[in-house]
Write a structure and sequence with these properties.
Distance between the termini: 28 Å
Shape: globular
Largest sheet: none
Helix content: 55-70%
Strand content: under 5%
Order of helices and strands: HHHHHHHH
Length: about 200
């Protein structure tokens, strides 16, 4: 994953992923368990791992994230590592919605609720940091979140399937909503609502 994550790194010499992405995991239990959860997920898809392992690391990550969120220091609450851990769990929840896990899931509503919790948590944490533009200390995290959110916004623009306009109240036109939401997210004011 590491060399290919930076698309413009033709010579594969960038250390962004190894230092800024994986480097955060060394000092953050939540981020480490979220990464281990993605590894467990990958192993499950390759038929070399168990669903139990995914859930174990997911639970440990959530416990550590919540502990960081209770910390009185705002820099720890919305640190790169804590935001990255929530982002990783959001990606895991997206993958767990795949049909391959249908037999493993006990409650479909829980799956939907977990994805929504992680997305809303991620958006709130980015907002508290002052917007995506202020996550300058970890360019990988910044880029991954931007790609994910732009994907959600484009899903809304194309199909209204990913983001429900009914929950947003008095929405602008689709074209205006796309640019308004993108600008708001990047520059720190979350005036729109993702109603997954």
């Amino acid at each position: 994953m590491a060399p290919g994550s930076v698309a413009v790194d033709i010579r594969r010499k960038s250390d962004l992923v190894s230092h800024h992405w994986f480097g955060n995991a060394i000092s953050s239990p939540g981020f480490m368990h979220s990464l281990l959860c993605t590894i467990a997920l990958h192993r499950y898809f390759m038929r070399r791992g168990s669903y139990t392992s995914i859930i174990h690391h997911k639970t440990e990550a959530i416990t550590a994230i919540n502990a960081a969120l209770r910390n009185p220091d705002p820099e720890i609450r919305v640190s790169d590592a804590n935001i990255g851990a929530v982002f990783n769990l959001l990606c895991v929840e997206e993958a767990l919605a795949h049909d391959i896990f249908k037999g493993e899931r006990q409650h479909e509503d829980d799956q939907y609720r977990q994805r929504r919790i992680h997305l809303n948590g991620l958006l709130r944490m980015v907002h508290l940091r002052g917007g995506l533009q202020n996550i300058k200390s970890n360019r990988c995290l910044q880029a991954f979140i931007l790609w994910y959110v732009l994907h959600l916004i484009s899903c809304y623009s194309v199909s209204h399937h990913c983001i429900s306009p009914n929950r947003a109240g008095n929405m602008l036109t689709e074209h205006q909503a796309f640019y308004s939401a993108r600008h708001s997210f990047i520059h720190g004011s979350l005036s729109f609502h993702f109603g997954l």
